[in-house]
Amino acid sequence: MKSAVIVFPASNCSRDAQVALEKITGRSVDMVWHEETTLPKVDFVVVPGGFSYGDYLRSGAIAARSPIVQDLVRKANNGLPVAGFCNGFQVLTESGLLPGALMRNKGLRFVCRPQKLNIVNKDTMFTAAYTHQDTITVPIAHFDGNYYADSTTLSKLKKNNQIVFTYEGNPNGSANDIAGITNEAGNVLGMMPHPERAIDPVHGGTDGLKLFRSVLESLR
Amino acid sequence: MSAKIKITPEVVAEHGLSIAEYDLICQRLEREPNINELGIFSVMWSEHCSYKSSRRHLGKLLTKGERVIQGPGENAGVIDIDDGDVIIFKMESHNHPSYIEPYQGAATGVGGIMRDVFTMGARPIANLNALRFGDPSHPKTKTLVAGVVHGIGGYGNCVGVPTVGGETNFDKGYNGNILVNAMCVGLAREDKVFYSAAKGVGNPIFYVGSKTGRDGIHGATMASAEFDDDSDAKRPTVQVGDPFTEKLLIEACLELMATDAIIAIQDMGAAGLTSSAIEMADKGGVGIHMNLDKVPQREPDMTPYEMMLSESQERMLMVLQPGKEQIAIDIFNKWDLDVAEVGKTTDTGRLVLTHKKKKVCDIPIAPLADDAPNLDRPYSKPVKRDVLENDPIFDPVKRGSDYNSVLKTLLSCPDIASKRWIWEQYDRTVMGDTMDSSQSGGDAAIVRIHGTNKAIAITTDCTPRYCTADPFEGGKQAVVETWRNLTCTGATPIAITDCLNFGNPEREDIMGQFVYAIEGMNEACRALDYPVVSGNVSLYNETNGKAIPPTPAIGGVGLIKDILKHATITGAKEGNTLILIGDTAGWMGSSLYAQFILGHNQPNSPIYAPPPVDLDAEKLNGDYVRRLIHDRRVNAVHDLSDGGLALTALEMAFSNGLGIALNAAKDIPTYAWLFGEDQGRYLLCVDQYSVNPVVSTAHTLGIAAQIVGKVGGERVSAVGGFDLSLNDAHMVYENWLPDYMAS
Q1: Partner residue facing B247 (CB), from A10, A113, A200
Q2: Residue A94 is among the residues annotated as catalytic for this protein
Q3: What CA–CA distance (Å, rounded) separates B351 from B363?
Q4: With an 8 Å Cβ cutoff, are A10 and B158 in contact?
Q5: pLDDT over 90 for what percent of chain B?
Q6: Choice among A86, A112, A184, A203 that is catalytic
Q7: Which residues of B are known to be catalytic?
C-alpha cells in the first residue's frame, strides 16, 4: 500500500502519522505540502492532526480551502480512501467530505487523556481488523472536538451505519457520543482521537495499529 | 519618543537607572546619551539582562561535567547523550507578565523558552512548567490558575510540543506575585549546534519572524522592579504571543540550519532587538551597524526607541554567510515569515543605528554587556531554625482527630492533591515519543529519543517551604530532589537548569536567601556531579514590600540508555512487597504534616528546620536504586517527598489502581513514621522473589532497607494508622482542584 500525509503549516501530527504508516506498510510515505495541487498516486491519504494555519478563523477552515484539499475532495469523491485524525477530522468536515461540525469542547477546556472508544461499526475498511475487540483506548488531545450535526443528519448517520466510534464517557459534549464517522460511501473516515499515538508499546498501548492494518488489508 | 527628548533626572529614573549608573554611561560614552541610547543602556543594565546582583554568586556554581558541551552563557545549556545526539535545555521565568495578564504572560513564557532552545539548532521535544500560585482563598488565585494553564496549553499545544511534566504549589506567599517558570528540552545533533557569537566583518545581519510592534516595550525593566497596587496598569508591557508563527519559525529555522548559511543566531527575547544584537556582537567581538528602516514593522511611524525596546514575539536575528542570503530568503518566504537584511557586522566594536538617514545611536558594545554593573550587594545570614522535636501531642488522636481525617486533609491539601485539572489541558502525547508524563503521577517524565531505544528523563522540583525555613538546605534539597526524581526512572542524572526566583536583592535578608540557596545548590551539584548548564534569575518578586518564599526551581535531565531498563510509579502487581530504601527518623519540621495538621502554616507560627539532606547517603541510596532498576528488580518506584511515606504509598496506589497496606511503625511514633519527611528515601515495589536480594544487598552496601508493606486489595491502610477504601481516598485526592476551580 502506498500512502501519503498532507502537511499544512502547523500540522503537528504529520510525523506521528508518517511513523504509523511506515510501520504498517513497510514503505516510505509521501509527505505532501499544502500548496501542491495534485496528490501523488497513492492508495490511502491521511489528513493529520495539529493546528493547521494556527486554527485561525475556525479549526480546519483555512486548510479546507488550500490547493491540495481541492484535489483530495475530488479524489475522495471518486473513492480514494482518506482518514482524518483530530484536526484532520475538522478539515474533512470543513471541506464537506464529512457531515457535521466540530465545536469547542463543552467544558471549554483543551482535553488530553487516554480515551476508551466503542467500536460501533466493524464493517468498515478502517475497523475490519478489530474482530475480537469491541473497545479500544487511544489518546485524545483537542479543544474543538464537540461533534455537532442536526437531527436529520444524526439519524442518517445512524441509519447508514456511518458512526464508527463513540466515546465511553463523553469528554467533549459530542452529539450521541460520536468520536468518529465515515462518509456514506465508507471510504472517508474522520475521528477526533489519535490512533497514530497508540501504535507502540512505549505509548502505553497499541490499540491504534489495527486501524491502519484494516486499511492495508482492505486494499489487498 | 524622539531623539530630541531631553534627558532629565526624571527620565533617567523612569528608566530604572541610578544616578551612579547614569554617570557611568556618560563616562563610557564621553557625552550624554540620547533617548535611544539611554533606553538601550537601561534594558541592558536591568537586573533581568545584566544579572548585576547575581552574577558574582552564580559564578560559584559547578558548570562543568563529563557530558557538558555548553554551560551557562549561551541561549541554553547543551549536554551529550551519546551517538552524536545532544540535549539542549533551559528553564526561564515569566512571573511578572503572568501576574498582570495570565494567558499571554504564560503563553509567551513558553514561546520564549522554546526559542532559546531551537535558536541553538534543537527541535523542542518536551516542555515542563513549575507554577506557584497564591493561597486558594485569595480572590485572584483562581483566575490566575485558569489563565496561566490556558496560556501554557494554548501555546504549547498549538506548537505541537508535548507538555510532559512540572509542579504546582499554592502558598499565600505568592498572593501578589505568582511564579510561572517554563522549561523546554530540545534535541539536536552535536555537529549542528548553533551559537550566538557573530563573526567576521561585513557579514549580513538578517531579521526573521514576526514584525516588530509596540508590545512589550520595557518588559525587561518591568521584570526588574517590584509590584505595587498599580501593577495592573502595566498590562500594555505584556507581549502577545502567536504560537502558529512560532511553529513556522521553528520549521523555517531548522530548515535553514540544515544548510551552511548561518554563522550565528539569537532569538529576540527580553529587551528584543537591543539585547539580541548586543549579545551577538559582544560574544563575537565585532560591531554592528543596523538600518532601522529595514526592520519589518507592524505599525507605521515607529521610533528607533520603540523598535529597539519592543518585545514583540517570534523574532530572530542571525548573521549569515555572505552569498547565502537567498537561501534564507527562500526558506522564510516558503513559511510566510518576514525576512529582511537589516545590517552588517563591522570592525568598530560599536552599535550604530541609523533611522531615516540619521544616526540615532552610536555606542561602544563592551560596556553594554561585559562592563555592566556587577554588584556586591550586602547580605545577611539566614536565621538558624530550631529542630522540631517529636512530641506525643503531634499524634492525631491526642489532637482529638484520627488518622483517617488527617490523611484526607493531606490528600486534599493544595500541594498534594491531584493536578489533573491542569495537565489534562496539555497535549502530552504529540510527537509520539512520550513514555511517561504527569499522567502517571510519577517522579519524572520520560521522552524517547525519536527513532532510538534511548530516552531522557526530565523533572522540575523545589520545595519552597524548606527554602523559607533554611535557604541553604532548601537549595540543596531542590537540586537533590530532581536528582532523586530522575533516578526513580532508572536514568543517570546529567545536569540541571535553574530558575532562581527571589524578592528584592536590595534587602539584605533577601540577598542572604539568594546567596545561601546558591551555596546549598552548589554543594549538592558538586557532591552528585550534577552541573548547572543554564538558567535564569528572577528578582524583585515582591508586592508592596512582601517578598515571595525563596524559590530556586530546578529542572533536571537524565539519560536512559536502554528504554527496556527503566521504571515508573506504575507497574506494581497484586501481592508485591513494598521496600523502603533510606533512613527514617521521622523528621516533622517544615513537613506538610506540620503545616496542615499542626498549623505551622498559620501567620506568625514558628518556623522549624527542614529535613537536612545527607549527600553521601543520597548518592549511595540513589545509585543503588538505579542499579536495581537496571537489573529489573523493581516493578515500580516513587521517591519520598511531600507528606512522607504515607502520601508516597498512596500516590503509588492511585497510579496503579491497587490498594496498599503499610506495616506498623517501629521505634518511632506512628505519625512520624507515616508523615515524616526524611530525605534520601525511595519506595520500591518488588516481586516476592526479589525481596531478599534487594534487602540483603542494600545492607551489605550499608544502605537502610526494610519491608514496609504489601500491594493489593482495594484498601489503603497502615497498621496503627489509617484505613480507607482506595476509591474514597482517591476521590479526595482527585476532587480538590476541580471542585476549587468550579467553586
Answers
A1: A10
A2: no
A3: 5
A4: yes
A5: 89
A6: A86
A7: 48, 94
Within an 8 Å CB–CB cutoff, is residue A144 touching chain B? Answer: no
What percent of chain B lies above the pLDDT cut of 70? 97
Residues of A in contact with B439 (CB under 8 A): 113-114
Query: Is A112 part of the annotated catalytic residue set?
Result: no
B427 and A141: CB-CB below 8 Å?
yes
Q: Per 3-state DSSP, what percentage of chain A is helix, strand, and coil (rounded to 5)?
A: 30, 25, 45
Q: What would the grid cell of residue B19 be?
A: 544616578
Q: Which CATH architecture has domain A3-219?
A: 3-Layer(aba) Sandwich (3.40)
pLDDT tens sequence across B39-71:
999 989 988 888 999 999 999 999 999 999 999
B432–A15 CB contact, under 8 Å: yes
Q: Count chain A–chain B contacts defined by CB atoms under 8 A.
A: 88
The answer on pLDDT for B233 being more than 80 is no
Closest Cα partner for B48 from B222, B196, B296? B222
Which amino acid would we find at residue B742?
Answer: A
Give the domain ranges of chain A: 3-219
Question: Considering only alpha carbons, which residue of chain A is nearest residue B452?
Answer: A202
Q: What is the dihedral of CA A21, A24, A28, A34, to 10 degrees?
A: -10
DSSP codes of every residue in B323-343: T-HHHHHHHHHHTT-EEEEEE
Compute CA distances B699 → B581, B696, B706, whole Å: 10, 5, 9
Residue of A13, A55, A202, A206 best to disrupt the B interface, most CBs of B under 10 A? A202
Nine-digit cell string for B467: 527554602
Which letter does DSSP use for residue B548 in this model? P
Given a cut of 80, is residue B217 above it in pLDDT? no
C-alpha cell at B683: 519506595
Give residue for cell 570592525.
B347
